[in-house]
Design goal:
- The chain is of the alpha/beta class.
- The protein has two domains: about 150 residues, 3-Layer(aba) Sandwich (Mannitol-specific EII, Chain A), CATH 3.40.930.10; about 50 residues.
- Helix content is about 50%, strand content about 15%.
- It has eight helices and eight strands.
- The strands form two sheets. Strands 2, 3, 4, 5, 6 and 7 form a six-stranded mixed β-sheet that branches. A two-stranded antiparallel ribbon has the order 1-8.
- Strand 3 and strand 4 form a beta hairpin.
- The longest helix is centred in the C-terminal third of the chain and has 17 residues.
- The chain is globular, with a radius of gyration of 17 Å.
- About 5% of the residues have low confidence.
C-alpha cells in the first residue's frame, strides 16, 4: 500500500487548538461536538458512551502527554478524526501519570477494522519522537498544529503497535473469568465490555486466546 498522510483525514475545522475542557470526559465530548458540527458523525450520544466505556476498561493515554481515545462505530464514512490540544494538560489516567496535552480522537467504521491499526502504525512512528511531540504541544495556533500533524505518514501496520495488545488481552481475560462466574444480568454487561476489546484485536490472536481460555 502506498503512503498517505494524516492530513488526508484532518481539516482545520477538526482541530481544537485550545481545549476548554478540564477533564477527559468533557475533552472527548468537546472533540465529538467538532465532528458532529462537520457532519462526520451522526449519533454523538452513542459514540460518547462507547468512548467513555472504552476509557473505563483501559486508558487510551499513551504516556508522554498524548492520548488516542477511539471507538469502532458506524460513522457513515471510513474514519472521523478530531485533534485537541490542552496547554495546561488533562488527567487521562496515563500509565506514566503525566497530564495529556495532545488528544487524537478516532472513530472508524466497523466494516474497515484494519484502517485503525493502519493509522496507529503511522502515529507511533511520530509520537515516540520527543521533538515531534514538543512541537505539537507548543503550536501557536490551529494552522501551525495542522502543519505539524500533516508530517505524519501512514503506512501498513507492523507488529510495533502503539497500543499494547498484551494489556488488552489481560483485561479481556479478567472480564471473561468474571463473566463465567457472574449472574445473568451482570454477565450481559461484562459481555459488552469484552466486545469493545475484541473489536481492537485481530481474529487470529482472538482465536488463540479463546482456545487457551477453553483449555484452562
Amino acid at each position: 500500500m502506498g503512503i498517505t498522510h494524516f492530513s488526508n483525514y484532518l481539516k482545520p475545522a477538526q482541530i481544537v487548538h485550545d481545549l476548554k475542557a478540564k477533564d477527559k470526559v468533557h475533552a472527548i465530548e468537546e472533540l465529538l461536538d467538532v465532528l458532529a458540527k462537520e457532519k462526520l458523525i451522526a449519533n454523538k450520544k452513542l459514540i460518547l458512551t462507547r468512548l467513555i466505556d472504552r476509557e473505563s476498561l483501559v486508558s487510551t493515554a499513551l504516556g508522554d502527554g498524548v492520548a488516542v481515545p477511539h471507538a469502532r462505530v458506524d460513522t457513515g464514512g471510513e474514519m472521523a478524526v478530531a485533534v485537541g490540544r490542552s496547554e495546561k494538560g488533562l488527567d487521562f489516567d496515563a500509565p506514566d501519570k503525566r497530564k495529556v496535552h495532545l488528544i487524537i480522537l478516532v472513530v472508524w467504521n466497523p466494516s474497515l477494522p484494519g484502517l485503525f491499526n493502519h493509522l496507529f502504525a503511522g502515529l507511533a512512528h511520530f509520537l515516540r519522537r520527543a521533538d515531534f511531540r514538543q512541537r505539537a504541544f507548543e503550536a501557536k495556533d490551529k494552522a501551525e498544529l495542522l502543519n505539524i500533524l500533516s508530517e505524519i505518514e501512514l503506512r501498513l501496520p507492523h507488529e510495533d503497535k502503539i497500543v499494547s495488545r498484551a494489556d488488552l488481552l489481560k483485561k479481556l481475560q479478567e472480564i471473561e473469568i468474571k463473566r463465567q462466574r457472574a449472574p445473568k444480568a451482570q454477565a450481559k454487561t461484562l459481555q459488552a465490555q469484552a466486545g469493545l476489546i475484541r473489536e481492537e484485536l485481530d481474529q487470529a490472536l482472538l482465536a488463540r486466546f479463546d482456545r487457551l481460555m477453553e483449555r484452562y
